[in-house]
Write a structure and sequence with these properties.
Layout: H1 2-20, H2 24-55, H3 58-74, H4 82-91, H5 97-125, H6 129-147, H7 150-157, H8 161-185, H9 189-214, H10 223-235, H11 237-253, H12 256-287, H13 292-328, H14 336-342, H15 349-360, H16 364-389, H17 391-415
Helix pairs in contact: 2-8, 2-12, 3-5, 3-6, 3-11, 3-12, 4-7, 4-10, 5-6, 6-9, 7-9, 8-9, 11-12, 11-16, 12-14, 12-15, 13-14, 13-15, 15-17, 16-17
Length: 416
């Protein structure tokens, strides 16, 4: 049955390639699996969001998101930009980077652990024992929690997308079930966070071991990839910090409830971005084997077509957002207007495809310039606008930065 569907569908996909200028058969083969995984992830996230909205108070949920932001900030030390470089290296058969990358992330993750322990001490002397225990546990598990992610990027590089979706779907479902079960019996912040961190660390560890056992990596390695990943991570420290800065500032300038309102407002855009990221996942291994001239010749037209599709999606969401919130998240109706405006940032996603061309061509100057610009402007705007305008200030800072970076990316690409 499936084979018959493929036989009928593939000719249509090949015909459509004349209009899209894209290898649609490749996208269907690889992207179909990834999008199926995204549908599962989106559904599970949606159910989890309903549980959070109905079972937790805004204050507790805001505190939970705040602690997660602190965990992510500390995790910056674990060379996160090495992840996409692993995909690029593995696509070129330099699979030895997986083990070296894992050890490097563990080593650098110790710095993140020290940050967590420092924050734990701060909260202890502030008399906030809940935050103290959360950060104490984070300090012990952070290196392993972050480093085990390398299996994801190893599978991406080998184009084993079916295995990737299977493992990630199982992780998402098991983690969500554990968390929903937890909040159904207790509203304790420490227990909730402990379940999240321990369950996810265990799942990542298991799937890393399973991946390397079933698909052993060769020992071929090129030092330039590890070096490039470290450089990207170091230059990206401030940019990654800027992504988590919004909730931290809102928590300190407004309150935990404000963090909760903002988190629900940005949730739809985040979920949609995760879905669209599959295009990046599929494209990077392909881009890694193309010349700059080939990329420049065809990529801009594809990005423009993607922009038009995203624009239609943004308009549609603006129309249906009030209904979605009214039905599923009635407690967070004040998040609707923020969500509609923030969804505009999705229009800048197509420009991130152009960034892959810079990465595939190891164009460090362009990549670093984009990171420095976006990071600097984002942090400055967040610190200026958040204390004055609150949630609107955060959204304005994010939108201004996103559109400015997209414009700069386009300018660099045309000069490539």
């Amino acid at each position: 049955m499936i084979q018959k569907i493929k036989q009928k569908l593939y000719p249509l996909l090949r015909i459509s390639q004349k209009y899209t200028g894209t290898d649609n058969v490749y996208i269907f083969k690889q992207g179909g699996v990834l999008y199926f995984g995204n549908m599962i992830a989106a559904l599970v996230s949606f159910v989890s969001a309903i549980a959070f909205a109905r079972l937790l108070s805004k204050t507790t949920y805001g505190e939970y998101k705040y602690i997660l932001s602190l965990l992510n900030l500390a995790g910056i030390a674990t060379l996160r930009h090495l992840n996409t470089v692993i995909t690029q290296a593995v696509a070129q058969k330099y699979e030895g980077i997986v083990k070296k990358g894992f050890l490097a992330k563990i080593k650098w993750g110790i710095i993140g652990s020290l940050v967590c322990f420092t924050l734990a001490g701060y909260f202890y002397f502030q008399g906030n024992l809940a935050f103290f225990f959360c950060m104490l546990l984070s300090g012990f598990l952070l290196p392993l929690f972050e480093a085990c992610d390398v299996y994801i990027y190893y599978l991406q590089g080998k184009k084993l997308f079916t295995k990737l979706v299977l493992y990630q779907s199982l992780s998402i479902i098991i983690s969500a079930v554990a968390i929903i079960f937890t909040i159904s019996i207790t509203r304790n912040l420490v227990i909730l966070f402990a379940v999240f961190l321990t369950v996810n660390t265990l799942l990542k560890s298991i799937f890393l071991l399973v991946t390397l056992k079933k698909h052993p990596a060769n020992n071929k390695s090129d030092p330039k990839f590890l070096k490039f990943g470290k450089e990207l991570s170091i230059f990206g420290i401030i940019s990654m910090a800027a992504r988590e800065l919004d909730r931290v500032l809102l928590f300190n300038f407004i309150d935990a409830a404000g963090v909760a309102i903002y988190s629900f407002a940005v949730m739809p855009e985040i979920q949609m971005t995760e879905i669209l990221k599959n295009l990046r996942t599929i494209a990077l291994p392909k881009f890694a084997t193309r010349t700059r001239e080939e990329l420049k010749k065809t990529l801009l037209t594809k990005v423009l077509k993607l922009f038009l599709v995203v624009l239609l999606g943004v308009i549609l969401y603006a129309l249906i957002a009030p209904t979605i919130f009214q039905i599923f998240f009635p407690k967070y109706m004040d998040s609707v207007v923020y969500s509609q405006v923030f969804f505009l940032s999705l229009l800048t996603f197509p420009a991130t495809i152009l960034e892959l061309a810079f990465q595939a061509g190891v164009m460090k100057k362009e990549l670093y310039s984009l990171k420095i610009f976006s990071t600097t402007s984002s942090i400055i705007l967040l610190f200026i606008l958040t204390p004055i305008f609150g949630i609107w200030g955060v959204i304005a800072a994010r939108l201004i930065t996103s559109f400015a970076k997209a414009g700069l990316t386009l300018m660099f690409f045309k000069k490539m």
